Amino acid sequence: FNPVTTIKYAVPKTAHVRLEIYNAIGQRVAILVDANKQPGYYDISLNASHLASGLYFYRMYTANFSKTKKLMLIK
Q1: Contact 71/57 with Cβ under 8 angstroms?
Q2: What is the β-pairing status of strands 28-37 and 66-73?
Q3: What is 6-70 written as a DSSP string?
Q4: Which of 63, 59, 61, 62 is nearest to 71 (CA)?
Q5: Which residues are paired to 20 by β-bridges?
Q6: Bridge partners, 28 (sequence order)
């Protein structure tokens, strides 16, 4: 993506959701979501204009779920 992308996610039941962005060496560079969410579909915009080109990971987790995916930022 360059430099804005949308991350979509679903919440099956009410939960505290946290969505974080990490760089390739594991440093957290942003927290996009840190809130209680009701069941439903959500999308969040990531503006990475302040980040360098490279590989990033986003991690979404709740008390019972965790998922990590990668992103490639090309400027």
Answers
A1: yes
A2: unpaired
A3: EEEEEESSSEEEEEEEEETTS-EEEEEEEEEE-SEEEEEEEE-TTSPSEEEEEEEE-SS-EEEEE
A4: 59
A5: 31, 59
A6: 22
Q: Which amino acid is at 32?
A: L
**C-alpha 60: how far from its chain's center?**
6
Q: What is the pLDDT of residues 15-65, one digit of tens each?
A: 999 999 999 999 999 999 999 999 999 999 999 999 999 999 999 999 999
44: Cβ–Cβ under 8 A, 6 or more apart, which residues? Answer: 6, 7, 9, 19, 32, 33
Kindly state the tokens that stand for 54: 């490279």
Residue 3: burial class (beta carbons within 10 Å; 0-12, 13-18, 19+) = middle
